[in-house]
Design brief:
single chain, alpha+beta, Helix Hairpins, Heat Shock Protein 90, 5-stranded mixed beta sheet, two-stranded antiparallel sheet, 7 strands, elongated
Length: 343
């Protein structure tokens, strides 16, 4: 019989039989050597006491094991259901404590995994809902334009207008998909940011290059105060993307002939980048919502955009150990302060 298949009851029976054989052999040897019947009775009494003590010990151990196994099964079932935590055992040198300690670690892992899965599921549902909401309008417009072109005869000039409108909706869908791809890659870790010690001046210049044409069209004056010798650890490509998104929002929501000012200051632990505009401003009760994915205020739906730029900017800055602060007054513009750690 293999040790792996030997049950506790059989092990006890084998042990008792072995102990009986040893005892009988010992008593028999004592009788042969001493020729004294009293030795036999003393030997039998001793064997009986040994068997009683062994039986009591085995019964007690079995009772403790049964209680522990029942409690362990109940605890594991509760842990799997997420309804209870492992009981605390403070006998630090006991085997039960070691098992309980590992159960507690197992419970924490299961709880974190359950919470992570729930959060991912909620995020996925929110993302699907947001995407569905965002693509609904351009797809409806494209269907309407396509149906009109197919069903109604019209002059070439009118066709060109419809095709231009269709092109605008396609560009909006393409922009949405590209923004979602960037966001998903950052969130899932497909793209990792590589922070290197390099001048912030060049990074800011790359961001400004993307908004100067639109600013010029609206006759918005852009002024920049950034020392060229400020060096900090950052990912140039993605930091430029974040700053561009903030600057692009400033251009969109600043009226014609307005002003945008950019100030860069070097502090002991952080580099602060202030982007100030003379736009419409943001109400205080909405300042915490503007970084949500796809969030847009009701009164700006006529302005081009999908509401993902600030969300993406915050993700990029946060992943580099920084943060963004907003101060704004309705009717007097907004200031977005980007704080990036120097090292």
């Amino acid at each position: 019989m293999s040790a792996g298949k030997l049950s506790i009851n059989r092990a006890c029976a084998v042990g008792a039989a072995f102990l009986g054989v040893i005892s009988a052999a010992t008593i028999g040897a004592a009788v042969l050597l001493t020729k004294n019947p009293a030795v036999v009775w003393l030997g039998l009494l001793f064997v009986a006491l040994v068997f009683v003590c062994a039986a009591a010990f085995v019964a007690f151990l079995r009772w403790k094991l049964v209680l522990f196994s029942d409690g362990l099964c109940r605890t594991i079932d509760d842990m799997l259901d997420g309804t209870a935590t492992p009981p605390q055992i403070y006998e630090e040198e006991s085997l039960f404590y070691k098992i309980n300690h590992r159960l507690a670690r197992l419970y924490e892992v299961l709880r974190e995994n359950r919470e992570s899965i729930a959060k991912e599921r909620a995020d996925l549902q929110e993302l699907i809902s947001d995407i569905s909401h965002q693509v609904k309008t351009p797809i409806s417009n494209l269907k309407m334009v396509n149906a009109t072109l197919l069903e109604q005869p019209m002059p070439e000039e009118k066709k060109r207008e419809f095709l231009q409108a269709s092109s605008g909706q396609l560009e909006k869908l393409d922009f949405l998909m590209q923004a979602m791809i960037k966001t998903s890659r950052l969130e899932t870790g497909v793209i990792s940011l590589e922070r290197k010690m390099q001048p912030i001046y060049d990074t800011l210049a790359a961001a400004l290059g993307g908004i100067l044409l639109n600013a010029e069209r609206k006759n918005i004056h852009v002024s920049v105060d950034c020392p060229e010798d400020i060096i900090l650890a950052h990912d140039r490509k993605w930091t430029s993307e974040a700053l561009f998104n903030i600057l692009d929002n400033a251009v969109k929501y600043t009226p014609a002939d307005g002003n945008i000012q950019v100030y860069v200051q070097s502090w002991e632990l952080y580099v602060k980048i202030d982007i100030m505009d003379s736009g419409k401003g943001i109400a205080e009760n909405r300042q915490g919502m503007i970084f949500k994915r796809f969030y847009r205020e009701e009164e700006v739906h006529d302005i081009e955009g999908i509401g993902i730029g600030l969300y993406l900017a915050r993700e990029i800055i946060t992943m580099q150990g920084g943060y963004i602060k907003v101060t704004s007054t309705v009717g007097h513009g907004s200031t977005f302060s980007v704080f990036l750690p120097r090292e």
